Amino acid sequence: MLGLRRRAFSQASSFLALLLLLAGGMFSSAPPSWPLDKVFQYIDLHQDEFVQALKEWVAVESDSVQPMPRFRQELFRMMAMAADKLQSLGAEVDSVDLGSQQMPDGQSLPIPPIILAHLGNDPKKPTVCFYGHLDVQPAQQGDGWLTNPYTLTEVDGKLYGRGATDNKGPVLAWINAVSAFRALEQDLPVNIKLILEGMEEAGSIALEEFIRKEKDRFFSSVDYIVISDNLWLSRRKPALTYGTRGNSYFLVEVKCRDQDFHSGTFGGILNEPIADLVALLGSLVDSFGHILIPGIYDQVAPLTEQEKEMYEAIDLDLEQYRNSSQVQKFLFDTKEEILMHLWRYPSFSIHGIEGAFDEPGIKTVIPGRVTGKFSIRLVPHMNVSTVEKQVKQHLEDVFSKRNSSNQMAISMVVGVQPWNANINDTQYLAAKRAIKTVFGMEPDMIQDGSSIPIAKLFQDIVQKSVMMLPLGAVDDGEHSQNEKINRWNYIEGSKLFAAFFSEMAKLHS
Question: What is the largest distance, in Å, between two alpha-carbon atoms of the chain?
């Protein structure tokens, strides 16, 4: 009897297991498994080739800021190199002509093309689109670079060169990840699309109109958009970015006449434009960094308890951060205050004065016309139009009180709204898992104090999930002298993108 019961129980258990197996096949599918260990090994073994590719790209002086024909030619060469590299991987590539740009001095300069590429069109896979830019900020060795900015130079594992971290290195890291799957003849876990531009540092000229045109074409099949154009908060701990500040950039001109004056002939008998300008700029901010424009803080989102806890949880070594920044003292003493004033409060910065004598030596001149350049970084829920009105009203009030005979003109030349993402989106979860796989730790969830307009454009126009997945360390020095990316960040970042592809496929299935 006991044996019969055991056999009956065994048969029932087997039948139940069969039912569960069939049900599992009907209602779910096991996530696909891609052998990342081989991909990682390939990336490690070919890292010198990847560094060489970055060296070739850095050698191209793709400066979009200086409106000179020579640099535009370099930009076109850079975009062609990227297109060739993508085609070599089997991607379908389209180089889209954007026409020309009319400059204030009357010259017309061609706009470098936008590169569109895609690999794979499997409807069962998610389609992930990577945005990057291949133009750079101006750089000259005489400006304080220790090496030639356009010759990638490795020192103690640091790869120095203009564009190394902003943004040629991350673009190549994405391509490296794709090339590893291709070289191993492994199926890509996701469909890949790329959009690469060459005018980001100059305001992404013609890009917004282009995105609107392509919303229902190139972007119609895109599920997720990834941007890797910012930095971690530390040297060794990865981060995921879910917000950036906006930016309102202003020019304020004070003019007496077009020609300069001799200070011995005219000094003391006229309102000097640069004195007016210095007074105007000085009225905008105090010595504690507090913006003095009436009403400027009225639209700032109130601080919540959840936010406070988030700032407390972030791993930031203040002493290391200060030393790496080469700053003697910050305006604030605690980690939380510093992060809040970098991310969730507006800031004011003076960028320069055009028309003033700034060469070495002595020149007893009174500038006849000067232009001050400054910007305000915006945060939720500040509005660009409101800020523009507040700035203009404040400067007009200050200038009128000076009773100057000079003329003042104010213009806002850039207006970018802040951007925030939903950290519960699928790709943020996939990125967290990928970071855990490659780096063995959870990422810092951070915001970025700078402005990356393309994120807001994609979010508003394409209306797809946008994520920022940075690769560079906090001390990479983007836009600065001696810009670099660490070899470790570049190579491990290539692995990170490969792992991200795999995690996206698992979550999608």
Answer: 123
DSSP per-residue letters across 244-279: E-EEEEEEEEEES-SS-EEHHHHTTSS--HHHHHHH
**Top-confidence residue, 256 or 416:** 256
Is 49 tagged catalytic?
no
User: What pairing do the DSSP bridges indicate for beta strands 239-244 and 153-155?
Assistant: unpaired
| Whether the Cβ atoms of residue 120 and residue 190 lie closer than 8 Å to each other | yes
Distance CA 37, CA 218 (A): 33
| Active-site annotation holder among 61, 74, 166, 200 | 200
In the set 63, 74, 135, 448, the catalytic residue is 135
Distances (CA, A) of 226 to 133, 200, 203, 249, 363: 13, 16, 19, 26, 51
Catalytic annotation present for 483:
no
Structure token digits, residue 289:
């960094």
Strands 365-366 and 261-262: antiparallel
259-264-270 Cα angle (round to 5): 60
Cα gap 21→26, rounded to integer Å: 9
- For the cut 60, the answer to whether the pLDDT of residue 248 exceeds it is yes
Tens digit of pLDDT for each residue in 118-153?
Answer: 999 999 999 999 999 999 999 999 999 999 999 999
Residue pLDDT, tens place only, 383-403? 999 999 999 999 999 999 999
- Residues 98 and 205: their CA atoms lie apart, in Å, by 9
Which helix or strand (DSSP H or E) is residue 133 part of? strand 127-133
pLDDT tens by residue, 21-70: 333 333 333 343 457 999 999 999 999 999 999 999 999 999 999 999 99
Contact assessment for residue 228 and residue 455, using Cβ atoms and an 8 Å cutoff: no
